[in-house]
Amino acid sequence: MKKLSFLNKVLLTLNYGIALLLCVAFLAPYISVKTIPFLSIFSLSVPLLVLGNLVFCLYWLLRSNKRFLLSATLLLLGYFLLGSFLQFKFSEEEIRADDLKIMSYNARGFNKNNWSEDNTIGDQIIDFITLENPDIICFQEFSRIRNRQLKKQYKYQFIAPNFEARKSIQAIYSQYPIVSTGEVPFKNTSNITSFADIAYKKDTIRIYNLHLESLKVVPDIDAISNEDSSKLYGRITKSFKKQQEQAQLIKEHRSNISYQTIVCGDFNNNQYSNVYRTVKGNLQDTFDEKGAAYGRTYNFKYYPVRIDFILADDRFQVTAHKNYDIQLSDHFPVMAGLRLRSNK
């Protein structure tokens, strides 16, 4: 093997460092935040670490240097441990009319707190829902003042929590009858998870609408870089620990039902985290099944993040998944097409 130049020695050192960080990130989905809090940070950095190793792999490969095998091996290992963060198809399948269309959308209060100067955003969201016409839609950060408009389109609805609770509002709207409803209570937080049992094609399906603890981070890399790192780390790990508790509560709650189950919502965490893995369990991620490209769902400046999910148990066939690129909130809506399997 040829002797390395000074520049290549520096690059090789960087390669080792990024490879080591990716190895640490491999542990994040499998170890609870409560056990090793700092691993939660690595789960957020997986796309960057994958990209870094891909660049080094190509660099050494172009130079016909066997050192490309380090990053190549890790990328292959990461595919089996973490899954692909990019779906290698670039067009989405259309959702068929006879499939169950379910949407999840953190609507940021329909702009009721004027986060945007555009005071038509709330009406634009209603117009968007009317056009896409999902059979079931789960809203996080809902605004009760929009109920009158949505009731024109949806006969059945469940809004939670009640008026007295000082919690973030959620709503589930359905074209099919809602036969029972409830909440999974979260302590010491403004977040909740609600659920509705819906009569669908002679079956009953359970829909969970999640909104896990927020990281309370401004979605701007410049703003994050200017914040005190110890305070930022402390706040993020505290939020991750709460998410872990909430994820465990949902897992336990879901284990007690026999209905076909769909879990929707804003996880405030990505697909490489232990929080996501705890909630997902043996459910299908509709993006993994039928999504395209990266599928970002949160408008984080310069950095694609997927933190909104639709998960379905294997009694459903996932027929389609769609990510929308409409900037009417800090989140982007997602919708999936599902079909009950006759042999399940």
Descriptive labels:
alpha+beta; six-stranded mixed beta sheet
Distance between the termini: 57 Å
Order of strands across the widest beta sheet?
3-4-2-1-12-11
Which architecture of the largest domain does the CATH hierarchy give at level 2?
A: 4-Layer Sandwich
Per CATH, the class of the largest domain reads Alpha Beta
Q: Report low-confidence residues grouped into runs of 5 or more.
A: none
The helix-and-strand class reads: alpha+beta
Major sheet size, sense and barrel closure: 6 strands, mixed
- How many beta strands in the DSSP annotation? 12
Number of domains: 2
Task: Determine the strand fraction and express it as a percent band.
Answer: 15-25%
Order of helices and strands: HHHHEHEHEEEEEHHEHEHEEE
CATH topology of the largest domain: Deoxyribonuclease I, Chain A
> So what's the overall shape?
globular
Instruction: Output mean pLDDT.
Output: 90
Total count of helical runs of at least 4 residues: 10
Please outline the helices and strands.
Blueprint: H1 6-27, H2 39-44, H3 46-62, H4 68-82, E1 100-106, H5 121-132, E2 136-140, H6 147-151, E3 156-160, E4 170-174, E5 178-184, E6 193-200, E7 203-211, H7 221-225, H8 229-254, E8 260-266, H9 274-280, E9 284-285, H10 286-290, E10 308-312, E11 316-323, E12 334-340
Parallel strand pairs: 1-2, 7-8
Antiparallel strand pairs: 1-12, 2-4, 3-4, 5-6, 6-7, 8-10, 9-10, 11-12
